[in-house]
Amino acid sequence: MPLTRLLVPFLALVCLFGMMRGIAFAQTAPFDFAAVEDEARKLASAPYREVPSIEGDMRKLGYDQYRALRTRPETALWRGSKGQFRVEFFPAGFIYEKPVSIGIVENGNVTPMAIDSGQFDFSDTGLKDPPKQVSLAGFKITYPLNRPDKLDEVISFLGASYFRPIGRGQGYGSAARGLAVDTATGRPEEFPTFRSFWLVKPADDANELVVWALLDSPAAAGAFAFTIRPGGRTILDTKAVLFMRHDVSVLGIAPLTSMFFAGKASPPRDDYRPEIHDADGLFMVTSKGERIWRPLANPSSLGVSSFADTNPRGFGLLQRERGFAQYQDSSARLEARPSLWVEPVGDWGDGEVRLVEIPTQAETNDNIVAFWVSRWPAKQGSRLEYRYRLSALSDEAALSPTARVVATRTAAIPYSGKGRRVVVEFAGGDLAALQPEQPVNANVSIAGGKLLRTYVEAVPSEKSWRLFIDFEPEGKKPVDMRAALTLRGSPLTETFVTVHRP
């Protein structure tokens, strides 16, 4: 289908978009990010209005039916250009029932994207009569990421304010969100949505693509700018400008979402796969340069952990274990899931990185959330601006030049009643070259329990060292633990932190 049939004059759709989105918009000047910010400001000044859901057979589609719906590649946006980027679109349907508007920006002019059902292959969906009209729910961007002669997906925007970036050699896993509101506070959580997107047409020789987005929720409206650079690390330089409709005590900035179902420290399961997770730890670099590793868990009850700091250097949900043998899942390719890493740009002030772990009985649920929370609650009428770089990467060792935690195991202490043992394995950095005779020591502290003993041993075959921590909980109180290895008083490793919940 010719591209000209997919693009219709902007003014002809202003009324339609206004009815669907509740947004009054008309182009009177060259369109730029300032215009998106102005739309967010106007949106926040009015009462929140939810976007109506679609109706009909598309909304009734099941999971497998929706996955079977295919975009016809020959209809991709910019397929006739000499540039490297293409865009394919997701129709509204299944759980993605809220339509979004998408505009194409070229030379400061906006043309709304119009889609017809002919752009999709419905043959495997089971629908007897494909719909004559479809709405859009999101899009994915393709680029010659792994081979020069093949276009690969590098990011998708689909559902609420979720987006999933991947780098070279990776597959979809952990996701990012535009904003988190009142997550794990005991109050109803809001899930803000991207209502509108604008794709800025790149030059033919461009290696980056700019996407603007308009976010909305009962708590806030916001304008987002993403500059996307695909590569070994796919990078999104992000600017978020938020306008608060009402006070929010927990406003989650740069939220990341992942799945952790089972790992080395999980209870035994009837499953041939040793581990099942998209990420195995929260990693953080504080303003003072301390590197902190917190292994993830699938807890028996909701767990919330906080890591206070002022102007942190970075945080993320990482997938450190990269061997197939650790997962034994040839279809899911968990070893290829991306690590997502957030680096604040500028001063974010006082606050904390908050980690939420939600119990789950199914690996299909995203049960891990991490985000930044300012010390100061977001107030009604305020304008907030955050800039950060989000990376999808697999070279996690580059983030921690000292020795890293590569595995965490737990066990009961034999013949010790309530005693528990945590075994932390460190590798990399200077540890790899140390002989077993070197006097490597452990600095361990715990709160909420009794430390029984610690000892360190080398594992020469793996070029790693193990730290054994024996402790006894005090009743039902959580036991917080911090540990690191040193050599003659000098640090050798990042800081291991965890919480044991009896």
Describe this structure as you would to a colleague.
Helix content is 7%, strand content 44%. It is mainly beta and 502 residues long. It has two domains: 396 residues, Beta-galactosidase, Chain A, domain 5; 100 residues, Immunoglobulin-like, CATH 2.60.40.10. The longest helix has 12 residues. The radius of gyration is 24 Å and the shape is globular. The protein starts with a helix and ends with a strand.
Indicate the topology:
Elements: H1 3-6, H2 14-21, H3 33-44, H4 57-60, H5 63-68, E1 70-71, E2 86-91, E3 101-106, E4 109-112, E5 120-121, E6 136-147, E7 150-158, E8 162-165, E9 175-177, E10 180-181, E11 193-200, E12 209-216, E13 220-229, E14 234-244, E15 251-258, E16 260-262, E17 276-277, E18 281-285, E19 291-295, E20 303-310, E21 314-318, E22 339-345, E23 350-357, E24 368-374, E25 383-393, E26 404-412, E27 420-427, E28 440-447, E29 449-459, E30 464-473, E31 479-487, E32 490-491, E33 495-500
Parallel strand pairs: 3-11, 19-33
Antiparallel strand pairs: 1-5, 2-6, 3-4, 6-7, 7-8, 8-9, 9-15, 10-15, 11-12, 12-13, 13-14, 14-25, 15-24, 16-17, 18-19, 18-21, 20-23, 21-22, 22-25, 23-24, 26-27, 27-30, 28-31, 29-30, 31-32, 31-33
